[in-house]
Design brief:
- By secondary structure, this protein is of the alpha+beta class.
- The chain folds into three domains: about 110 residues, no CATH class; about 60 residues, no CATH class; about 120 residues, no CATH class.
- About 55% of the residues lie in helices and about 5% in strands.
- It has 14 helices and four strands.
- Strand 1 and strand 2 form a beta hairpin.
- The longest helix has 24 residues.
Amino acid sequence: MSDTRTPSVEWHLEQSQPNHILDYFTPGRGFSRQINTLISRFRSVQALCTCTCTPPEALVHLRDALAFHMVRMSRWWSFDFCPRALAGVRNPLFMTYVKAHTTRHVDDDVLLDLFTLQHHMHRGDAGHILALGRDPDSGADLVLLYGIDGQRGFRFAAKKPGMEPDWYRHAYPDYASAWLAAWTIHCSQREQCDAMDEHLAAEREHTWARSWHQRHFHRTESRPAITLYREAMTQRSLCQSRFGVGEFDDIVNGLAFRVVRTAYERHASLATIVNESAIAHDDGTLADTLAQKARLYVTECMDVLQHPELDRVIARTAGCAPRRCS
């Protein structure tokens, strides 16, 4: 499903800068909206670059920056992606975009090196940590810092005024896990922590969500999308933290949209897909529920550039009669 309208170069240079669409240090903004928008903007900018003999230098730099941030996001949230499958760009060419960006930005070059060859790190050394930044919600009396070690694990540290950072010994597979753990530890060390149950539940529920994030772009899943939807709904019903509920709302809605896309590609109605799945206890409202959740996903988690086309896809599968859509 391609973008339905192509904004101008000027629009992209203003609206598609990575710092406008990504917030690395605030996981509460969610995974799906950020990564879906990033991929969409890269595709759109890449299309503008390839349809012009001599694209503006600023647009080329933007394309390269978006490519780099696709790599960074894949490590930040621990998911797999293939540039050719997602953006129609061969992997070697995609990496030339990434490296062109890092030659212009030293900090990003260091980060890419950490993720790859580790020329600038003590390779494989868990005690050698690259500091990434501070938690925007930590106070002046105690600053929470985050970093990545030589084994590519995410770490956090507490830093009091006038003292060196005290890096916690455990490493985490993605930034959100380190962020959640940091606040759990910080809460446990306070005289009174009324939110400990919330923190612990969020950590537990994020471990469930991680497996869904890792497969966000997988299209070779053997199980039907509606089966995955039911599985995620079961996990969603067990969530007790606001963070976990938010993550699983996006996951469930995304899988509902995948069911819609399956119906659209088969020229079938949602009701037909539901009937074929032989779901027990369906009172006839599941098709409507799937359509509602898919609409929420488009509104809340897809790039605004894609909304018109995706809204039409949902309307077509939800509005036609069961069995077949013409």
